[in-house]
């Protein structure tokens, strides 16, 4: 290995309620490609955000080129020569390519007028684009470029600032197979030119193809590191998972009515080529695991009728139901607790009571007039049952904590006697105490015959709560694991796209 | 309730000042005329407010007045329609225009500002073309109860004011006590979350424009008989802005989701008192708009300051818990 370019020692970072990073070390040599892997929430992004100047570490040292440095802002990182290619590209698609490359550092003329030197900006951009082998005109509007090309523009932007270290956060998550191959080839070229690269990905095959070394994070700590010759799927998966599971989960022994909820041949707009089939028994909690972007939320939205599926059939209690709008789903007792509480689950500017009664409001009326007393009673009853901590039911939801907000979402659906409930990341951003309460509630519901689907990226939660686990990979269900087969390894293998090997057994 | 209190206090204070400076303010003739205007302006301001609560805006009201005024005059005087048929045609027509706005906004996904701005231009042009740019009038005929409704009085209360009271009560129930009203606020605050709660957001938004159209129709008929002559190039000009101003003064947020009928009515009254103040206090009438602009600005600014103070106090309570 060549000289060390970057050295992180003992980096720690806390966010309210969580330790995101706990004394993490990372080294990158000049011209080295380091793959940084780990489960969702392992701390990869936090670590890179610290390096890119988005967050500041609470403890630890950063050395760049042997010198201790402090990276307090994104521009500090730029100045050092650290370029960050985010997963969500940071491009302005209303401007042209050259404007994007030189945003904030435009060559100017005309003194105080600071007119943009268009000749110069285009000439320089041309040079950077050529270096990356990108055949687009500097004056092409960015929105006319493919995602892969836009990504190259971002790389060109970083290189134009003499970046010596490129951080790529899941650069291939939106690329096609051939685009991915081209990107990997480009990475090899850049490495040959002496540029160091930190490559974050969930796709282990890519790691094997391009990485010189693999660093694995787990729960905000270094889980291990693999040299070039040690990089294998099995080794990576072993480091990514494997920890003690806390057993504050309850499992059911109740007899279940099989096939209570059935999805047949469902195709979503996000993954039009994948057809999804699965069933959930009444009284069962089906975990839906997979990596971010595997199409789980899209599946939930399609079932609930907020994003219409291309085709597919949904049966509740063996009867087909037609869902063209969330209203239809609600009328069949099929509810969704969505992932983004503030955006889709709650109207945070409105009172607790108004949120709870919103979907079932029509039942509380006489001639269109809302029965305010009945409304308050229902909300108060639900708040007591779920132990929502709120000064009153008239309090605006935005003044409650995350856990209590989530309970308000639950209260909303429990007031309407659910038959099928879909939870999308039910405990994201919720503290441990409230988490346990929500698990208990889910289990109680199941015991009462509700069919539950729980989408979760928290492996511990998936294993702890689910009776069975369906694992999604790029829009399809890669496999369904019975309780006895559920291990982190088994789920991870399916989630990264390997076919189920235990099938024959 | 807190929001309306601020405007209400401002209204009372202004009334007191004007009354002290010029006792004619409390004269019967002045009060009558003001009540009549508050009645007419209040009716369409409620429509305007409803649209604002959904997060939209309606700029087409003034031009719609011109168009319906011209058409009403033609129906009654040239075609000799029965008054009720003409009224029905006008209100169905304005509701139709409202539903076109609603359709373009919810289905074609155009911005409310653009859609109703095009309406503003289009209806004005159409009115002038139909009327040949000539002033249309109603002469001195009664046309059933129409003239009385616009200019008459019951127990010496002007009819349009009574109409406003009736409409305000009905709309208060609709907005503050009915499912529809709750949905309107929900959609205005967070359309997506409303959709996830099973509300057909598009229908709700579109319906607000239709209701606004109906109220514009009613107010427009009263207004036409009040002025008795309609010059198509100026009739109702800028009135949409009075509606928006009244709604905003009354506590509606242009971001959507906030507002009340009571607030809108008080806001309308405040605007009319301001107009009256300019006349009675001998302020040059050319300053009319300047006074109104300044008072609205001060009102909204004060409201924002109070709201942010309230917010920070609330934050402290939550933080200290």
Structural class of the helices, strands and pairings of chain A?
alpha/beta
Total strands of chain B: the figure is 4
Measured by DSSP, the beta-strand proportion of chain A falls in: 25-35%
Output the radius of gyration of chain B.
20 Å
What is the makeup of the main sheet of chain B? 2 strands, antiparallel
Number of helices of chain A: 17
Describe the structure.
The complex is a heterodimer of chains A (505) and B (321). Chain A is 32% helix and 26% strand. Chain A contains 17 helices and 24 strands. Chain A is globular, with a radius of gyration of 25 Å. The model of chain A is unreliable at 243-247 and 500-505 (pLDDT under 50). Chain B is mostly helical and 321 residues long. Chain B contains 13 helices and 4 strands. A two-stranded antiparallel sheet of chain B has the order 1-4. Chain B has a two-stranded antiparallel sheet with strand order 2-3. Chain B starts with a helix and ends with a helix. The A-B interface holds A 304, 306, 325-327, 329-331, 336, 338, 343-350, 354, 358-359, 361-362, 365, 368-370, 372, 399, 412 and B 173, 177-180, 182-183, 185-186, 189-190, 192-200, 257, 314, 318.
Itemize the secondary structure elements and their pairings.
The complex is a heterodimer of chains A (505) and B (321).
Chain A: E1 4-15, E2 18-29, E3 33-37, H1 44-51, E4 59-64, E5 67-69, H2 74-80, E6 82-85, H3 97-101, E7 108-109, E8 115-116, H4 118-131, H5 147-160, E9 165-169, H6 177-192, E10 196-200, H7 204-210, E11 213-218, E12 221-227, H8 233-240, E13 257-267, E14 276-282, E15 285-290, H9 296-304, E16 311-316, E17 319-321, H10 326-331, E18 334-337, H11 341-345, H12 352-357, E19 365-366, E20 369-370, H13 372-386, H14 402-414, E21 420-424, H15 432-447, E22 451-455, H16 459-465, E23 468-473, E24 476-482, H17 488-495
Parallel strand pairs in A: 3-10, 3-11, 6-9, 9-10, 15-22, 15-23, 18-21, 21-22
Antiparallel strand pairs in A: 1-2, 1-4, 4-5, 7-8, 11-12, 13-14, 13-16, 16-17, 19-20, 23-24
Chain B: H1 2-21, H2 28-53, H3 61-78, H4 83-106, H5 112-130, E1 136-137, H6 146-151, E2 153-154, E3 157-158, H7 159-177, H8 179-189, H9 191-196, H10 201-227, E4 229-230, H11 239-249, H12 261-280, H13 288-320
Antiparallel strand pairs in B: 1-4, 2-3
Helix pairs in contact in B: 1-12, 2-7, 2-10, 2-11, 2-12, 3-4, 3-5, 3-10, 4-5, 4-10, 7-8, 8-10, 11-12, 12-13
């Amino acid at each position: 290995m060549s000289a060390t370019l970057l050295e992180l020692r003992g980096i720690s970072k806390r966010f309210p309620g969580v330790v995101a990073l706990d004394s993490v070390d990372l080294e990158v040599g000049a011209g080295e490609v380091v793959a940084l892997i780990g489960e969702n929430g392992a701390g990869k992004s936090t670590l890179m955000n610290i390096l890119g100047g988005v967050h500041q570490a609470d403890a630890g040292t950063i050395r760049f080129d042997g010198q201790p440095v402090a990276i307090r802002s994104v521009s500090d990182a730029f100045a050092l020569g650290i370029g960050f290619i985010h997963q969500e590209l940071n491009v302005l698609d209303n401007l042209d390519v050259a404007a994007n490359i030189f945003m904030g550092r435009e060559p100017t003329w005309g003194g105080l007028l600071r007119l943009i030197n268009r000749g110069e900006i285009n000439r320089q951009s041309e040079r950077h684009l050529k270096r990356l082998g990108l055949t687009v005109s500097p004056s092409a509007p960015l929105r006319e470029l493919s995602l892969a090309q836009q990504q190259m523009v971002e790389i060109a932007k970083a290189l134009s600032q003499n970046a010596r270290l490129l951080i790529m956060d899941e650069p291939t998550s939106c690329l096609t197979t051939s685009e991915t191959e081209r990107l990997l080839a480009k990475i090899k070229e850049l490495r040959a030119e002496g540029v160091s690269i930190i490559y974050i990905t969930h796709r282990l095959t890519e790691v094997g193809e391009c990485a010189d070394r693999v660093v694995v994070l787990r729960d905000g700590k270094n889980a291990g590191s693999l040299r070039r010759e040690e990089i294998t799927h099995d080794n990576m998966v072993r480091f990514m998972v494997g920890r003690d599971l806390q057993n504050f989960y309850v499992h059911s022994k109740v007899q279940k009515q099989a096939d209570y909820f059935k999805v047949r041949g469902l195709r979503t707009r996000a993954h039009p080529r994948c057809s999804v089939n699965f069933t959930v028994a009444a009284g069962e909690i089906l975990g839906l695991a997979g990596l971010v972007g595997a199409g789980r939320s899209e599946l939930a939205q399609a079932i609930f009728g907020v994003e219409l599926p291309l085709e597919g059939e949904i049966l509740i209690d063996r009867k087909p139901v037609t869902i063209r709008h969330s209203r239809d789903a609600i009328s069949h007792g099929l509810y969704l607790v969505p992932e983004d509480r503030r955006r889709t689950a709650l109207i945070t500017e409105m009172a607790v009571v108004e949120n709870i009664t919103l979907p079932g409001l029509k039942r509380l009326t006489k001639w269109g007039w809302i029965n305010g007393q009945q409304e308050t009673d229902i909300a108060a009853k639900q708040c007591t049952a779920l132990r929502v901590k709120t000064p009153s039911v008239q309090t605006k939801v935005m003044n409650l904590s995350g856990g209590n907000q989530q309970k308000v979402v639950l209260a909303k659906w429990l007031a309407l006697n659910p038959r099928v409930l879909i939870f999308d990341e039910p405990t994201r951003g919720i503290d441990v105490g409230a988490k346990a309460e929500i698990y208990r509630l889910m289990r109680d519901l199941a015991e009462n015959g509700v069919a539950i689907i729980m989408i979760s990226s928290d492996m511990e939660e998936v294993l702890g709560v689910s009776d069975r686990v369906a694992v999604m990979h790029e829009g399809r269900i890669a496999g369904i694991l019975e309780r006895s087969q559920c291990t982190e390894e088994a789920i991870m293998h399916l989630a990264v796209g390997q076919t189920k090997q235990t099938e024959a057994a | 309730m807190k929001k309306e209190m601020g405007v209400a206090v401002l209204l009372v204070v202004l009334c007191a000042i004007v009354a002290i400076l010029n006792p004619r303010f409390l004269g019967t003739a002045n009060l009558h005329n003001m009540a009549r205007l508050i009645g007419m302006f209040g009716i369409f301001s409620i429509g305007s407010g409803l649209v604002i609560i959904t997060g939209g805006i309606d700029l087409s009201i003034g031009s719609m007045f011109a168009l319906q005024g011209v058409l009403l005059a033609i129906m009654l005087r040239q075609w000799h329609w029965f008054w009720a048929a003409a009224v029905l045609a006008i209100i169905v027509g304005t509701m139709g225009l409202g539903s076109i706005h609603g359709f373009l906004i919810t289905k074609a996904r155009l911005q409310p500002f653009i859609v109703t701005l095009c309406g503003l231009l289009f209806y004005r042009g159409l009115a002038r073309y139909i009327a040949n740019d000539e002033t249309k009038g109603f002469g001195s005929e009664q046309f059933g109860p129409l003239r009385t409704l616009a200019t008459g009085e019951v127990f010496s209360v002007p009819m349009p004011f009574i109409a406003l009271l009736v409409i305000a009560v009905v709309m208060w129930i609709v907005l503050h006590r009915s499912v529809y009203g709750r949905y309107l606020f929900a959609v205005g605050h967070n359309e997506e979350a409303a959709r996830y709660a099973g509300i057909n957001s598009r229908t709700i938004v579109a319906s607000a424009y239709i209701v606004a159209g109906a109220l514009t129709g009613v107010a427009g008929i009263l207004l036409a008989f009040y002025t008795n002559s309609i010059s198509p190039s100026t009739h109702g000009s800028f009135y949409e802005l009075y509606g928006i101003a009244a709604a905003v003064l009354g506590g509606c947020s242009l971001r959507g989701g906030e507002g009340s009928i009571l607030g809108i009515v008080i806001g309308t009254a405040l605007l009319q008192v301001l107009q009256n103040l300019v006349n009675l206090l001998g302020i040059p009438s050319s300053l009319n708009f300047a006074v109104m602009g300044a008072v609205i600005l001060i009102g909204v600014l004060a409201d924002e300051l109070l709201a942010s103070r309230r917010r920070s106090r609330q934050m402290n309570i939550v933080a200290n818990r």
